[in-house]
């Protein structure tokens, strides 16, 4: 009986060591932000909703629906020259507006690693498949983001670096 306990303890220890090593490897392969200062403006929970602004009611058409409830997380990000958000993804869409300078974004699943450059006053909707934002200019850049996430849940998950199609 004592031999069985000793073997079980050895196996438990070995599995624990493997899990720790795997976790460390994942962290070292992750792509954390560098040179970016995020500032949380606010996070609010919205009950389920459905909005439909039909054509003719406004000069645009807009539809949105959330079920169950969602959180909206509003942040600003200050990007120093050469800064990078790191490869990451979001659980839902993120509305990104560049407020100063210019930022270059690359999609994680783009086999051509094509840059998309946005300047102050421009915005886009990230669909959550994974991307990296970089300040490839020589000046400070800033953005404001509105991320949609599960209530109380994470709104950013790190991805491995380099990206599968980009060398950074």
What does this structure look like?
The protein has 168 residues and is an alpha+beta fold. It folds into two domains: 1-30; 33-158, Jelly Rolls (Sandwich), CATH 2.60.120. Helices cover 17% and strands 46% of the residues. It has one helix and twelve strands. It has a five-stranded antiparallel beta sheet with strand order 1-4-11-6-9, with no helix packed on it. Strands 8-7-10 form a three-stranded antiparallel beta sheet, with no helix packed on it. A hairpin with an 8-residue loop joins β7 and β8. The protein is globular, with a radius of gyration of 21 Å. It starts with a helix and ends in a 10-residue tail after the last strand. Residues 12-28 have low confidence and may be disordered.
Along the chain, the helix and strand elements come as HEEEEEEEEEEEE
Helix content: 10-25%
Note the beta-strand portion. over 45%
Low-confidence stretches are 12-28
**What is the fold-level CATH name, i.e. the topology of the largest domain?**
Jelly Rolls
Q: What is the terminal-to-terminal distance?
A: 54 Å
Shape: globular
Largest sheet: 5 strands, antiparallel
CATH class of the largest domain: Mainly Beta
Number of structural domains: 2
């Amino acid at each position: 009986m004592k031999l069985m306990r000793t073997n079980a303890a050895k196996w438990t220890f070995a599995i624990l060591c493997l899990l720790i090593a795997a976790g460390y490897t994942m962290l070292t392969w992750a792509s954390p932000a560098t040179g970016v200062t995020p500032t949380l403006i606010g996070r609010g929970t919205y009950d389920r909703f459905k909005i439909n602004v039909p054509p003719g009611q406004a000069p645009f058409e807009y539809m949105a629906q959330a079920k169950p409830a969602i959180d909206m997380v509003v942040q600003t990000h200050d990007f120093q020259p050469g800064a990078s958000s790191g490869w990451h993804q979001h659980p839902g869409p993120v509305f990104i507006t560049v407020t100063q300078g210019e930022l270059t974004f690359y999609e994680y699943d783009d086999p051509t690693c094509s840059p998309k450059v946005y300047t102050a006053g421009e915005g886009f909707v990230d669909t959550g498949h994974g991307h990296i934002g970089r300040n490839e200019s020589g000046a400070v850049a800033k953005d404001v983001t509105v991320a949609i996430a599960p209530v109380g849940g994470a709104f950013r998950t790190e991805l491995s670096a380099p990206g599968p199609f980009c060398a950074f």
